[in-house]
Amino acid sequence: MNSVFLRRPHLPVAPGCLLAVLCFANLVDAGRQTTVFHGTVTRPDSHTALNLVPDHVLFAIDSSGNTRPPRVIDGVTFDSNFRRIAGYSDARAPGRLDNWDADSNTIGSDAATMNAILNDIDCCEGPNSYAFDVPNGLTKLQAFWQGNAETRLWDIMVEGKVSVDEVSSNGFWDGVRFPRDDNRRYTLFEQTVDVTDGRLNVTFGQLYSNGPDHPRKDGHHILSGMVMSRVPLPGDYDGNGMLTTADIAMLTRSIVDGSTDSQFDLNADSEVDVDDHRFWVKNLKNTWFGDANLDGEFNSSDLIVVFQAGKYETDVDAGWHEGDWDGDQRFGTGDLIAAFQDGGYEAGARAAVSAVPEPSSAALMALGVIGICRLRKRR
């Protein structure tokens, strides 16, 4: 989303119009308020708003620099020393305050630990920049803070782009007033970033101005903690960030075993069945049935691979790369029919194909291959 920032005009003004121009400029400043360009800003009342799945968390940070032992929520350890984290760097050492705001009152099973994290803060006259080494792919950034220092307003920049302008310790500011916080909730900023260079960059502080600062803005950011977590790729069951034959093998096994695990219900119909198998192939991997090596095409090289595996009509377990394309863990006639009826044989990448062969011609092609295979078996 492109951001548009108002700037005061620098135009020659006749003396008689000067007062009107100044009044307009003051209205522009007075009307400035919290603006979210990327991500979201919310006011949760529990730690459950944080993505604290241990297998997904890359970094969990408690802003206090001297907490021993480290605090743990839902099995995730919050490191209290940024400099122990691989790849961390900051442009300016922030000021750390313990028990700065001891009135946090979140709810939930780990409320006491969450409140302790919230009560300690980083506070710095920004901009203060952080950079973390993270794997390429989708990463969710969550930064959170507690406090009632209503005169504080700052900006948040992620990967060189302003995400939030004029966020406050209590969340939002409408240009005149701050929200009351009777429930002592905390403020959470979160944004999902597609990391391509192995590094996630975040900056807090006063990053730009539309003229003189508003009298109630000082640019000092408040930070209680951050969580960075990888966003799982749907259908990536081994967690390596790619869709491979190992993943469709796990999906196939779950279907055969009658699993009800929701992670395998890819089409969200509350069932784990062959429709999810098809969804993985067509919607997630975006390839053809018959693409044994998952290179995006179905051609003679795939047929060579599966027949070399030697499992055609042997009634033994077979994987996708061994010819099981219909999801029954066997390689037989039904797999070849399914593959050729899908229409991708020698058609190139699926995304680039706008038309597929007629079903009749696909069936004839499948019958021809099946006949050759059976002839070879008799010999």
Low-confidence stretches: 1-31, 210-216, 354-360
The SSE string, one letter per element, is: HEEEEEEEHEEEEEEEEEHHHHH
Provide the helix percentage.
10-25%
Number of strands: 16
Strand proportion, as a percent range, falls in 15-25%
3D shape: elongated
The residue-averaged pLDDT reads: 79
Care to describe what's here?
The chain has 379 residues and is α+β, with helices and mostly antiparallel strands. It has two domains: 15-230, Jelly Rolls, CATH 2.60.120.430; 245-378, no CATH class. 23% of the residues lie in helices and 22% in strands. It is built from seven helices and 16 strands. The protein has helices at 15-30, 111-119, 245-256, 274-284, 300-308, 333-341, 359-378, and strands at 35-36, 40-42, 57-62, 71-73, 76-78, 89-90, 95-97, 121-125, 128-133, 137-145, 153-158, 161-168, 187-195, 199-205, 220-223, 225-230. The strands form four sheets. It has a six-stranded antiparallel sheet with strand order 1-12-11-14-9-6, with no helix packed on it. A five-stranded antiparallel sheet has the order 2-13-10-16-3, with no helix packed on it. It has a three-stranded antiparallel sheet with strand order 7-8-15. A hairpin with a 2-residue loop joins strand 4 and strand 5 (76-78). Helix 6 (333-341) packs antiparallel against helix 7 (359-378). The longest helix has 20 residues, at 359-378. It starts with 14 loop residues before the first helix and ends with a helix. The model is unreliable at 1-31, 210-216 and 354-360 (pLDDT under 50).
